[in-house]
Amino acid sequence: MIKSKKILFILCAALLLSGCSGHSKDADKISKLEEQLEEAEARAEKAEKAEQEALDRLKEYEDAAEPESENPDTSESDEAAPVEGETAARPQTIVLDPGHSGVVAQGTEPLGPGSSEYKSADTGGTSGVSTGVPEYELTLNISLQLRQELQNRGYTVLMTRETNDVPLSCVQRAEVANNANADAYVRIHANGSENQSATGAMTICTTPQSPYVPDMYSASRLLSDCILNKLCEATGCNKERVWETDTMSGNNWSKVPVTIVEMGYMSNPQEDATMQTPEYQALIVQGIANGIDTYLGY
Ligand SMILES: [Zn+2]
Predict the structure, then answer these.
(1) Which domain holds residue 49?
(2) Is 34 exposed, middle or buried (0-12, 13-18, 19+ CB in 10 A)?
């Protein structure tokens, strides 16, 4: 606000100093600029508010989850306290999308509903710099373990693919989540970078200004925060960030809360090797499942 007033003041001063004779023209220009500034401010405020709301909700969930796990007092609930090792059925449906495939879907498709910009239907993904394992194998491996863990916790789980020989476009993948009216659509990927020292996890969601799914922002941002926090907590890996972007067609086509989980860097020799160990994979699975639980209020 203060900054834009300053800019406006400078613009006014500049127009006066330039000695223009068309005063009404200048006034028009100023009021137009003022309007544009106000619109930009409103957009920025809205985005900031949505992000704050998402973070507040995440904190509420986390605060509520902790004391409950230590003290399973169900005095406010008619349901019996769950017996340790058993989990009550959870009514939600989770769709898991193991990123990429051994057979890459050909052609292009719109970046989002109604977009005139087209993007590859799918890409080959990356591969491990030290292990040589392709990303599509790791993503399916983790997704199958995650499906088992989520089923153990009582969720209904659907997969966009269960083998490495099916070509699937980003729109086809999103349709699986849309048709199931999934409570969360979780896309499993691993990262690659030219900088081999890059390590850690990030999650990716759309922005509040998305031209395709602006209403999905708060939920997708919260899902992304919950999974990133719990994944990094479980594995101890470097926490990168939640990346907000409208350039991911699979997110743009999703009508349900969605996140891409970049579990770690296959371009980092150490992280690549670690991600292939069953011990670390079990931590990844626990972390993502905990994040989904937190997002859904468990
Ligand atoms: Zn990928």
Answers:
(1) 2-15+26-56
(2) middle
